[in-house]
Amino acid sequence: MMFKYKAIKADGARVDGKIEAVNEDDAIAILQDRKLIIISVEQFEEKKDFGSPTTGFRLPFLGKKIKEKDIVVFSRQIATLFQSGVSALRSFRLVSAETENPRLKKVLEAIADDVQSGLSISSAMSKHDNVFGVFYSSMIKAGEESGKLDESFLYLADYLDRNYDLTQKIKKATAYPIFVISVFIIVMGVVITFVIPKFAEMLTVQDQELPLATKIIFGIGTFSQKYALIILIILAILVYYFYTLSKTPSGKQYLDYFKLKIPIYNALTKKIFLSRLTDNIDTMLSSGVPIVRSLEITSDVLDNVIFKDLIIRVSKKVKGGKSLSQSFYEEEELPNLLVQMTKIGEETGKLGYILKSLSTYYKREVSTAIDTTLTLIEPILIFLLAGGVGFLLAAVMIPMFSVMTGI
């Protein structure tokens, strides 16, 4: 979130500016770290600069975007420098000088400048939450408070590495079916629009009765050829509508709810959510982030609105005095295994260790589910594609065969 502020410096000079923070309290805390006397702080929507390195909107010719792998490498480099006793400012200068990604280099140089001007590392990095994320800056802040900043960077590097591997597995699982279905739709569209009408003209000349399937295919082909431009415009409008809908809170909630109703996708999504939930909380607890704050940050980094609302409800219950296991128990969507293992962790004082074990377990479950899904998808796709091609061939070849035998 972006906030506008008005404040007074220690020398009495008045300053106006903008700041990025998780919420208003965080914005106030960052300004207080800068030794400013706050007059007002209010949220506003900032217009994104075209092609800015820290905005989500980029064009290919404006340079490489900052990838998750770049952040992993940066985290390991900075942790190694801290462990070697190199100062924070010197560490950021060294890493920025060695960074090949021009966008990340600019961001690290900006952070180094802020650190040099007296800002804490977490405050400087929180100004770039759209690059590092709220989770990242909160972990660094906890590391500063506990005096274990190098460990926080190592935790983050390990966490991002695990998250990157999980993301790659999910992409691989979805890339194959999307590619096959897309190619099939394009090829069938071209055949039905441009090839089928030619056959329709040939068979119409023969003046013979056509099967129902042939009439349907020929009708679709003739219609597609005649109204191709209108169909493309309608499709473009529908794509734009659903894209716009997905950006609204109610629309995103509806789409996320719909996704969870897809049988195979539903089970896989829940396991991915549980894996990330346990991994996030374990990583933050290991760095000294309080449990309530860990839950709040976890809700911020979740993509699915349904799961986000679930974690927000859990965090409110924990803040109200309930245990984490009891709060989990009251949510029907969460499995009994998570509830019971969390309860054991609370009773033994080893909640972090238990959550780490659960995270490892759910990661194995995700890998197994992805492999199983791919195993199921391949024969299903082959069956559907074969059925579609077979229907098309039958609709065309049966009347053609009748014509040939009638000659």
Key phrases:
407 residues; mainly alpha; 17 helices; 5% strand
Distance, first to last CA: 75 Å
Q: With helices defined by DSSP (H or I, 4 residues minimum), what is the helix count?
A: 17
Largest sheet: 3 strands, antiparallel
Helix and strand run: EEHEHHHHHHHHHHHHHHHH
Low-pLDDT windows of residues? 46-63
Structural class: mainly alpha
Give the proportion of residues in helices: over 70%
> Averaged pLDDT, please?
79
- The strand line-up of the biggest sheet is 2-1-3
Count every beta strand, where a strand is a DSSP E run of 2 or more residues. 3
The Cα radius of gyration reads 28 Å
Q: Indicate the proportion of strand residues.
A: 5-15%
Shape: elongated
Descriptive overview:
With 407 residues, this protein is mostly helical. It is built from 17 helices and 3 strands. A 3-stranded antiparallel β-sheet has the order 2-1-3, with helices on one face. It is elongated. The model is unreliable at 46-63 (pLDDT under 50).
